[in-house]
Amino acid sequence: MQYIENRTFDEIDVGDTAEIVRTLRTDDIELFAVMSGDINPAHVDPEYARDDLFKKVIAHGMWGGALISAVLGTELPGPGTIYLNQSLSFRHPVGVGDTVTVRVTARAKNAENRQVTFDCLCLNQDGAVVIRGEALVIAPSLKVRRPRVVLPEVHLHERGARYGQLIEATRPLAPVRTAVVHPCDRLSLEGALEAAKRGLILPILVGPRGRINAAAAEAGVDLGHVEIVDTPHSHAAAARAVALVREGRTEALMKGKLHTDELMEAIVDHTTGLRTERRMSHVFALDVPSYPRPLFVTDAAINIDPDIDVLRDIVQNAIDLAHALGMDEPKVALLSAVETVTPKLPSTLKAAALCKMAERGQIEGGLLDGPLAFDNAVSPAAAEAKGIRSPVAGRADILVAPDLESGNMIAKQLIHLAGADAAGIVLGARVPVMLTSRADDVLARLASAALAQLFVRHRAGPV
């Protein structure tokens, strides 16, 4: 066990010194900004900082001041110290990657009130003075020795940042003609209109005109420029939207305020639907704060208990989506409860068979491995502890669940317990279907629209 120990007033001699060394990371700047509320663009906006005085993002000045306080409170004098006064002179900026040595030196003592004056100095890796100052403290009179407190891990996550990158990637692309099915509430209508505003889709609103107009009035938006295809109810809206695809008028579908089963019934109809030779499947695109890359989970919405042939299509659909997003060879983890093949768990047999199918070219464009337990799929440490040597284990881009129940639980747990943002899309039909939940916010709907746009334009190839 590590301990933290102070030096009392009587133990301190003039000339005594203590120091710590820290290297500035981007996370340090962001965490200080979150804690202090100081969002000066010189510290948090690289584009602004490039044209500012120092031509780069720099640390908050008081980041260095906080390090001085850390030396005084933990090293010299240490626990029991009372801060009275601090003067600071900032001499040189600190940029990301700079290593700062923070040193305090006892300059004078006053036995009458146990006050100690310290010279304070911060130097960068080149020896340049970053901060110079003076601190006045009351040194402790009693000896303190305590176990060092283990600080919590901090994971910084900018909500929507990855989705913002996704939407940015669509900027050079033409919007996708999209039938928005039954957008009869404020949220689904706003999501569609915002997607249109961002250049992701060209919407055709399909549903009861009166209810659509009422939703527009509630949202305070003007629909004068948007085409509305009037239908009597949601079931008819789903059928008419599918017909628009078959007529070549739309390139994608977006779910509004209706049940998923109602929309999918029209899509999978053997006579009038949008079936292809590929099985349809749903892909969740998740932005998980604690995971270092986008994470896709499939299938969590359509195929209840898929067999090998259906799982092959589920995997291929997810790989095709990853390609549309610029991933050349996505890593696909075939999930089960264990990482060994056993007849007692049919999901392990299916995973092994899918890997062999990939070797034989029946699944293309991805790197498959399985069976893998969830922890082995997403945690390098867990994979190493189990002795699993694989380019997929611990680094999966796509998680393939053995059935709908497990897939849905994985996705919902990541959303509600890990704070993940989720977008969703159905692939394998003639056109992609933006299958958002009725509770999804505008950000999720925008991300789903971006997925559909990238997929449609990727499939169409270079113009």
Task: Give a quick set of tags describing it.
Rossmann fold; six-stranded mixed sheet; Isopropylmalate Dehydrogenase; 463 residues; alpha/beta; five-stranded antiparallel sheet; 35% helix; Thiol Ester Dehydrase, Chain A
Helices and strands in order:
Layout: E1 3-5, E2 17-23, H1 26-36, H2 41-44, H3 46-50, H4 61-74, E3 82-90, E4 99-110, E5 115-123, E6 129-138, E7 145-147, H5 161-169, E8 176-181, H6 186-197, E9 201-207, H7 209-219, E10 227-230, H8 234-246, E11 252-255, H9 260-268, E12 281-287, E13 295-298, H10 308-324, E14 331-335, H11 346-359, E15 367-372, H12 374-378, H13 380-385, E16 398-400, H14 404-416, E17 421-427, E18 433-434, H15 442-460
Helix pairs in contact: 5-15, 6-7, 6-15, 8-9, 10-15
Characterize the structure shown.
With 463 residues, the protein is of the alpha/beta class. The protein has helices at residues 26-36, 41-44, 46-50, 61-74, 161-169, 186-197, 209-219, 234-246, 260-268, 308-324, 346-359, 374-378, 380-385, 404-416, 442-460; strands spanning 3-5, 17-23, 82-90, 99-110, 115-123, 129-138, 145-147, 176-181, 201-207, 227-230, 252-255, 281-287, 295-298, 331-335, 367-372, 398-400, 421-427, 433-434. Strands 15-14-16-13-12-17 form a six-stranded mixed beta sheet, with helices on both faces. The chain has a five-stranded antiparallel beta sheet with strand order 2-4-5-6-3, with helices on one face. A hairpin with a 5-residue loop joins strand 5 (115-123) and strand 6 (129-138). Helix 6 packs across helix 7 (209-219), helix 8 (234-246) packs parallel to helix 9 and helix 10 (308-324) crosses helix 15.
